[in-house]
Structure prediction request, 120 residues.
Amino acid sequence: MSFIQYISIGTTLIFLFIVFRLVVKKQLREEFSIIWILSAILLNIIAFWRDSIEVMADFFGVYYPPSILYIALFLLIIIYCLHMSILLSRQRNQIKNLSQEIAILNEKIDALNLKNGEAE
Prediction:
């Protein structure tokens, strides 16, 4: 194994350790940690098996093997951005619904206070 492979493997192992610590400290939710764990495992596989990039490039018919990594990363980033947009939209709707429910409950409380003669 070459020096760069050792550096790559060490870096991905440190990255995995950081992800696991963040999950344990509840700073990163489990469902979001899966993508980072899978990324680190994939990078470890590429670091161990250096010819994997060339095999994938030959399979997909890509002339310059390192460009397959850029293509794959670009597609993964687009998919991840779409996933985050879906989550953001869902949370925005939940916040809107909760705000409306709070406003309705505050109106009911005010109406009950006025009915009982307790004005603020």
About this structure: The CA atoms of residues 95 and 101 lie 10 Å apart. Helices lie at 3-24, 30-48, 52-60, 67-115. The chain has four helices and no strands. The radius of gyration is 25 Å.
